[in-house]
Fold this protein.
Amino acid sequence: MNEIITVIDIETTGLDPLTDHITEIAAIRAEVGPGGYIREIGRFQTYVALPDGVEIPEFITELTGIKAEDLRGAPESWWASGALYAFVEGSTVVAQNAPFDFSFIERTWPFDLQPGFACTRAMSRLIDPDENASLAPTCARYGIALNGHHRAMNDVEATLQLYAILREKAEVNGITYRNVVVDSAERPLTYTPPGAIVRTIERRQTKGVA
């Protein structure tokens, strides 16, 4: 069965939604279906202005390429998050690390996750529990090109392709993945999206990052 999804990704000044801030948001709304079918419907991308006195750490600029001048004239976080909400409305929201992205977005805009969400990192852990669930190695396993990693739209493009593959694998194998997030010792769950189902999965091989 085909479904309408919106894949989202954010870039931030750090990992803590209570002290760090969004610098970029990107999303692709698409129809996906069996056999890896993808029909892109539209795209959303914006830089996000930082509060007065907040700067982008140097290591974040080195990681993402996003500089202070890129954010000049960008909308404030409440506007950007609200615009994203309008873009995703009525679709299943997909993110590579859904708890991370949602924790930042919900700080400035109550994110109503209806009709639900899917986390491709959790899907990867459910389907291949002993493999690295990070975006880059997961894409490599499935032959998906990931160019310009850690830029929001580049990651969204790869995550869209990844979701189409993992969705079919999960459904063929009877794996429940909708609204599921994964908790583990190597990556403790620090935020649980409203209505999420928490699964605990431990990997027996080398550790990795998302």
